[in-house]
Every structure is written in structure tokens, then in C-alpha cells.
Amino acid sequence: MSKNKQEEILRISENWDSKNLILIKEVFKIFKDKYTETVALKSFCLDIKKGEILAIMGPSGSGKSTLINIIAGLLNPTTGSVYFQDKHNEIKDLTMLSLNDLVIYRRDNVGIIFQEFELFNNLMVFENIEIPLLIKQDKGEADDSEITEQHGNNIKTEPKMSEEKYIPLEKMLTLRGTKYNKLKINSLIEFVGLKKRKVHLVKQLSGGEKQRVAICAAVIKNPPVILADEPTGELDSENAKNIFSLLKTICKRIGTTVIIASHDPLVKKYVDRIINIKDGQVVGSD
Ligand code: ADP
Ligand code: MG
């Protein structure tokens, strides 16, 4: 990293608003091939607060998916910076991360929901929700012996939660360790109303049910950010309302930041803030 860049990150860190989770600064994304050049994002700036539910709205081709993919660490901007505060409260620029660090960023920070569900059709509902937990495992966090809870001055082992069938969202997502996986998955499945579908193959489900599975899979590892790209694009309005409402309820209860790219006006009722974009630029907010 250049000296200038290091100084810039230092300056951004010193002036970081503690309410912010992500700060997008002057991002350009230009897709180029031999004959064409498309500017998908132009001088794009946005700050995203911790715990807010944000809608990115705009017509088709306005740059919504490009933005979501950049925040997801799946696409690198042509120029500009995407700062984020990591779990150690350190400020990092996504565009400066190595490939390996980007993989870790994605694993620890984001859950993604796509229009086409992107689930494993030939696996069961339960298995689809389990997969992110298996990927998320790392040595420290997966070690069951480390699960403790503070009771006054004594550190006690977590009560035998795995014997309970369901637990509240707030509690479930703070539990760490593979022995809680089943309990967490069951509780989420119950919460989104898919108890009867638990061992069904995903390909047997309706669109609305698939998207509920996708929400569970995105939320199960309790990431700081959930990104949703046209999550209701394949759904009728009744199912769309259910999906927006579920996303809002779950994420408000566990304090997750949510960014929803959508051109569906229904989304407006379920978010804290709306950013309107056109031709790759912010043109207004409500
Ligand atoms: P939205 O999600 O709002 O419909 P996108 O972010 O998908 O918009 O696209 C913004 C612009 O960038 C569009 O003009 C689109 O054609 C172009 N674009 C997106 N991805 C690519 C790509 N991989 N290669 C070339 N052009 C792209
Ligand atoms: Mg799109």
C-alpha cells in the first residue's frame, strides 16, 4: 500500500463517525471491453450507518447491482474507496485487501440474498441454512469448550441450550460453537414459518419459501451486513411484502445493517432510508 493511501486511511480512521459502518468515497466502476465502455458508478459517495435498513432504488441499469457487488467484496471499483469498520473496530479499505483478506471479509461481514435465490436446489432446506455455518467455522469460534457466559463474577459454562428446541432470535445468533448449529437452524426455520419444509428439497419450494430460506442462510452466521439484490424480483406482491417484512423484523431484532437494492416501490415501507440512484449517481434520498 502506498504511503499516501496509508495516510488517507489514518485520516479517515481519526475522523470516523462512530455511527458509521461503511463509507463509500468517490467510487467509479467502469466496465470496458474492446468496443464498449460502460460507466456503472460515477463519483459515488454514501455512508451506511450501523443497524440501519437502507434501500437503494433506481431504474434498471442505474448501478444497483454493481454497488451491492462492490460492498460484498465481489467486484473491485475502478477507482475510489470503500471503507468499513471491522469487528476489531479497525477501519479498512476494501479496495486494498488481498484476495485472501477479501474472502475473510465476505465470510465474517456479509450475508447476501439474490433475486434468483442462489440456493442448492438438490439439498434440503436445513442443509442450505447450515452451509454458511460450516464455511464460517474457524478454530477459535468452533471450539465448543470456549462457550461461556458471564454470571456475576463467575464464568459459567453456557446452560444446556441444545436440549431446548427453539430459542429467541436475539439469543440464538450470539451463540457460538458447532454444538448450537442445529438449535440455531431450527429456531430460524421456525421463525420464518418453514417448520413443515425443513427436510424438503429446495427445488420443491415456492419462490416465497425459497427466499425465506435464503434469508435464513444469510442471517444464520450473524454478519454485520446483509445485502439483498432485488430480493423480491421473482415474487408476487404478497410474497414480496412478507419478505421485506421478515428481513426488517429479523435484522432490527439482531441489529444487522441491511442494504436492499430494489426497484419495487413496496420496499419503501420497510426501510429507514431510501437512496435514489440514476446513471450510477445518487440523485436524492428520503
Ligand atoms: P442495476 O442493478 O441497477 O440494473 P447494474 O449495476 O447491473 O444496474 O448495471 C449498471 C450498468 O453497468 C448497466 O449499464 C449494465 O449494463 C452495466 N454492467 C453491469 N455489469 C456489467 C459487466 N459485467 N460488464 C459490462 N457491463 C456491465
Ligand atoms: Mg440489478
Give the C-level CATH assignment: Alpha Beta
Any idea what the radius of gyration is? 20 Å
Tally of helical segments: 9
Average residue-wise pLDDT: 88
Number of domains: 1
Superfamily at the CATH H level?
Answer: P-loop containing nucleotide triphosphate hydrolases
How would you concisely characterize the structure shown here?
The chain is α/β, with parallel strands linked by helices and 286 residues long. The protein is built from nine helices and twelve strands.
Describe the structure in your own words.
This protein is 33% helix and 26% strand. The chain is of the alpha/beta class. The chain has a single domain (3-140, 157-285), classed as P-loop containing nucleotide triphosphate hydrolases (Rossmann fold, 3-Layer(aba) Sandwich). The strands form three sheets. Strands 6-9-10-3-11-12 form a six-stranded mixed β-sheet, with helices on both faces. The protein has a four-stranded antiparallel β-sheet with strand order 2-1-4-5, with helices on both faces. Strands 7-8 form a two-stranded antiparallel ribbon. Strand 4 and strand 5 (91-93) form a beta hairpin. Helix 4 packs across helix 7 (181-191) and helix 4 runs parallel beside helix 8 (207-219). The radius of gyration is 20 Å and the shape is globular. The two termini are 37 Å apart. 33% of the residues are buried. Bound molecules: adenosine-5'-diphosphate and magnesium ion.
Question: How does the SSE layout of this entry go?
Answer:
Blueprint: H1 3-14, E1 20-32, E2 37-49, E3 53-57, H2 64-71, E4 79-85, E5 91-93, H3 99-109, E6 110-113, H4 125-136, H5 139-142, E7 148-151, E8 154-157, H6 169-172, H7 181-191, H8 207-219, E9 225-229, H9 237-254, E10 257-262, E11 273-278, E12 281-285
Parallel strand pairs: 3-10, 3-11, 6-9, 9-10
Antiparallel strand pairs: 1-2, 1-4, 4-5, 7-8, 11-12
Helix pairs in contact: 4-7, 4-8, 8-9
The protein binds adenosine-5'-diphosphate and magnesium ion.
